[in-house]
Amino acid sequence: MKYSLTAPRDMRLSELLAEKLSFLGKRRLRELISGRHVKVRGERTGEDVMLAAGDAAEAYTSDAAPDIPVVYSDDNIAVADKPAHTDTMSLPAALAEVYGELYPVHRLDVNTTGLVVLARTPEAAAELEREFRARAIKKKYLATVVGAPPSGRGTLRHWLVKDAAKGVVRAYGKPVRGGAECSADYELVGRDGELSVLALYPATGRTHQLRVQLAAAGMPVLGDGKYGDFAANRKYGVGGQMLRAVSLTFVSPRGVLAYLRGKEISVE
Q1: Distance between CA 179 and CA 177 in Å, rounded?
Q2: Which of 31, 53, 123, 213 is the most buried (most CB within 10 A)?
Q3: What is the pTM of this model?
């Protein structure tokens, strides 16, 4: 199978493959490069070469793309149910054989599962990006957390500071220099001993937001290997972080997506 890729920025070939074809795994991607199964600008290469933004690459492999469930599609969008351990940016390649060219317009963390909307045309992508910037697409998540909230309903509000060098985000309960304000409403859905299930409605979409906010509030997501309660993770032996995007509601799309106004797409 041939995967046609375009570098979105200056980057190494290995970075492009890891971002766009993460479902193949790091070892297999290294083998594609070393085995000269990748073309860059039309020429085969066995080296991890540098790419400029816009450079084209083609990867050839007999490995089948994973079965990514698509819960809704029409001429303008496709909504996929992203599995764990999958980079959002790899969904277009995994779905290309059926849906053609797709344009990611938002992301989920690699280990967060659930709904991701992809545009099928540049016009739809522009409208979806506008909607996400305007916070006009409402999202609902379900999380199993260690601990319990102080009340059945409430709002988490923090200021997040991203440490790009360490790949972590820190949350503060008051404004700090360089901090990005974020908030999310929550509702207690159920409780079993020290574990709780929360429905979460983020008003913003910061990097690692819900995981960091919940950890800062003393309710880390079960199975979270970066911000979680490691003792609880070992105790319950979960295979991944228990955070899932279960619903997207299109509030006020315009133009080519006006027909989606008020539509909710959900998954169990």
Answers
A1: 5
A2: 213
A3: 0.86
Q: Containing H/E element for 65?
A: none
What are residue 260's DSSP bridge partners?
A: none
CA 70 to chain centre: 15
- CA-to-CA distance for 224 and 229, rounded, in angstroms? 7
Phi/psi for 90 (5° steps) reads: -90, -10
Go through the domains of the chain in sequence order and give each one's CATH number: 2-60 (3.10.290.10), 70-134 (3.30.70.580), 140-244 (3.30.2350.10)
Positive or negative, the Cα torsion across 27, 28, 30, 34? positive
Task: Name the catalytic one among 81, 87, 109, 229.
Answer: 109
141: amino acid identity, one letter: Y
H helices within the chain, ranges in order? 13-20, 26-34, 91-99, 122-133, 209-216, 230-236
Instruction: Reply yes or no on whether 63 is catalytic.
Output: no
Burial of 141 (0-12, 13-18, 19+ CB in 10 A): buried
Question: What is the token pair recorded at 104?
Answer: 């990611």
Predicted confidence (pLDDT) per residue in 143-181, tens digit: 999 999 999 999 999 999 998 888 899 999 999 999 999
Query: Rounded to an integer, what distance in angstroms lies between the CA atom of residue 174 and that of residue 151?
Result: 21
CA distance 197 to 135: 25
Torsion of CA 183, 186, 191, 196, to 10 degrees: -20
